[in-house]
Q: What sequence folds into this?
DNA sequence: AGAATCTATTCCGCATTGTGGAATGAAAGC
DNA sequence: GCTTTCATTCCACAATGCGGAATAGATTCT
């Protein structure tokens, strides 16, 4: 709605693209389609606020410290994380695969915690990464346990075709009933993700933990093992979040 | 320079204040001195970009997910952190106090990692917190090892009185020579911080690790012990960052 | 060394954008 | 049912931000 803010965010988003770390004013202008004088004026303003940094020597622009400052501040406040970490760590050891904690934010979930697989072959999605809520085992188990009204709103945006949406809601019902969701190569081809929801003391979903494994060496038995472990871990976290004392 | 961006950041900074988590539009207007219609227009725009979230039910505003998304993304890129963590963890066990890793950003340093003291009495500064570069043992050991030109620029801003500045530079020279910096209650009254610099493969300071202890139960002997341990840990991290293989 | 070709950075007249006071609407308290 | 307290919308006005073009500075080519 406010032009300068939109444009500022265009520049910020460009700077945050993974492919490239350093951008020149001219490159930013090219990428965003904005006049270079405009890019210049806006970056100056953003620099004032710490949202963008300019490397003096090379004139390159980068994201500024403010993102880390406020991002970490928000991050620290999440006490779900503190409870989750030890459980996830044990889970990672038991299953020998990479495990994740995701929390929903709007139409996406954010990867909040990741414990890497102790094995050599790792599948690594980054902490901070955002994944649309209809993609992946973890997210499906989040959606499956959200209030219907919210789910409707989210799906209308993410799944435009009505028929698909109805299909998807049937899947969610099953995910809710079973207590876990599975995705086959939805986010990353060749991998399977198993997610299970985490609830707070009010019984509301606050997020989901998940395990991501390579599809090629999966057997039925291993699958059952993973599901059981992930489900147990999610249950334990939920219990701890609701204040119960488990042995 | 750009009014709407300045105002947007005023609102963001207000939202990020620790005292209060949730703000109404009217409260934001009061706090920032902006007309309420302006607050409204700007927050709407910020919501579009995920910089601010509005709790539907209560109309309260909070910081949006974008800060976490980009903040964590930047955070993940810091490989100093990966190298540092295990060393810091061992250090925390050995000294039984809270230890920190700080990285400089502009005129401040940011707390990037914290390993809590295993003891009951903890001194806890938050991850993400920003501390002016002339405050504290860690920051002094960073400043002491920066290029003179940069130090001059930073000190002109942080220490306005010329005489004090000259005094401070003498202290920095000593910190550089000794390899560690000490501060007595500079950031938190009643505590002592001992910091030691961390260097990359080029021999440039990338940050500092530090230990923060309560002043009242400190003896000369303990002090020597802490200094030695912090110094050793910093050395080890620097070696690892420069690619050397230590036993 | 001088010309040519880049970029970053600044300038400034113009009009689009953002402004903010006031009106509306909706909800809570008396 | 009247008053207060908010959020939200409206709109005439002009300040703010716009962007093409000029400048300055750096680098490469002849």
A:
């Amino acid at each position: 709605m406010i032009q300068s803010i939109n444009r500022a965010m265009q520049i910020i988003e460009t700077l945050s693209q993974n492919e490239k770390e350093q951008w020149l004013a001219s490159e930013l202008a090219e990428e965003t389609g904005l006049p270079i004088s405009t890019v210049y004026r806006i970056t100056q303003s953003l620099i004032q606020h710490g949202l963008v940094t300019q490397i003096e020597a090379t004139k390159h622009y980068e994201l500024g410290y403010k993102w880390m400052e406020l991002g970490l501040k928000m991050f620290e406040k999440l006490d779900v994380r503190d409870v989750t970490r030890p459980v996830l760590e044990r889970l990672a050891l038991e299953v020998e695969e990479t495990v994740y904690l995701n929390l929903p934010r709007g139409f996406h979930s954010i990867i909040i915690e990741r414990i890497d697989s102790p094995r050599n072959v790792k599948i690594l999605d980054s902490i901070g990464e955002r994944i649309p809520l209809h993609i992946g085992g973890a997210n499906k188990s989040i959606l499956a346990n959200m209030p219907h009204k919210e789910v409707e709103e989210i799906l209308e945006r993410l799944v435009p075709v009505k028929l698909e949406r109805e299909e998807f809601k049937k899947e969610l019902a099953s995910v809710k009933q079973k207590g876990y969701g599975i995705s086959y190569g939805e986010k990353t081809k060749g991998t399977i993700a198993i997610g299970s929801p985490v609830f707070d003391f009010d019984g509301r979903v606050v997020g989901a933990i998940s395990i991501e494994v390579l599809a090629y060496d999966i057997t039925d038995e291993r699958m059952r093992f993973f599901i059981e472990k992930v489900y147990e871990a999610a249950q334990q976290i939920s219990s701890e979040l609701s204040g119960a004392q488990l042995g």
Remarks:
- Chain A has nine helices and eight strands.
- The domain at 2-64 of chain A is CATH 1.10.10.10 (Arc Repressor Mutant, subunit A).
- The longest helix of chain A spans residues 220-241.
